[in-house]
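User: Can you help me understand a structure? I only have the sequence.
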Amino acid sequence: MRIELVKRQQQSWLFQLVSPFLAFAMTLVAGGLIFALLGKNPFTGLYFYFLDPLTEVWSLHELTVKAGPLILIAVGLCVCYRSNNWNIGAEGQFIAGAIAGSTVPILMPDFQNALTLPLMLLFGMLGGALYAGIPALLKVRFNANEILTSLMLVYVAQLALDWLVRGVWRDPKGFSFPGSIRFSPSATIPEIIPSQGSAHYGFVLALIAAVLVWFFLSRTLKGFEVRVLGLSPRAGRFAGFSASGMVFFSFMLSGALAGLAGISEVSGAIGQLREVISPGYGFTAIIVAFLGRLNPLGAIAAGLLLALTYLGGEAAQQSLGVSLRAVRVFQGMLLFFVLACDTLIFYRIKFVPGATAEAKS
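Assistant: Let's start by predicting it. Here is the structure, written out as tokens:
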């Protein structure tokens, strides 16, 4: 006997609506089982993971700090994935944007005025867009698989960042520790509530980007082109839309938002360029995009939820002695259950007896 997936003629809109909530509920059940296997109380573990970080004001500030880059990157990935272009290298574009935007305060430390921060953000977006243009070019020109090329470029960006902060960009007054000079106040994204927490305006940029991209996808001709080419490239060609042009557009828009997230993280939460500037935001944002149903507005709620897993992982580590790698387990399970639910929405399971199948062949 073998199992086949048969495409459904019609998909239930109700199950499409509740699918993310069902996936989250199954993640909670599976997470509780993991805590039980580790010898911990499942309810205590889930409390520290999902509720304890929401009980203090400083945790709420940290939640927005971690959610900002996740939302920005996921919003760009929504455009890529809805156009049927698979950008897996947002982590590298995040780093490329951070490097490009940091050229202003590092190479021109005396340039401190009202234009400093806007130029940093602009350079960050350009850096991320150009870096994302590499896998787009390879796909259009050489038909290279964009999943592999974008993923491999992540490691190139990580090595380039490490080389810079340990070499030519290392702070001469930093006691030989890797890292650039500290950014000046004019090169730093201001806090939303000064001296009251770490939340900064990078989170506001993420919310604005989500609303603008939602409007773009749902209310503009170019957004219609994204959706048509994603659903049916053949229909898009008949309509006169350029598939190769869409590859460049979607990748570079996604890269620009990832680059904006990178320079926002460096100039907001960190304050300098370091050898490690991301706990894996570019990869986690893939989960955010799918959990948000590839909708930029849905990415806001999903980004907050995944940011909560980072804080919850730290809380569980401190209170229960759980490894911080448990964060990856929860995030991985969440993605697995989201994709599983989506698969069952579009396909039904059919059991085919082996003897019958052989007779047919």
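Now, to help you interpret it: The longest strand covers residues 2-7. Strands lie at 2-7, 347-352. Let me know which part you'd like to focus on.
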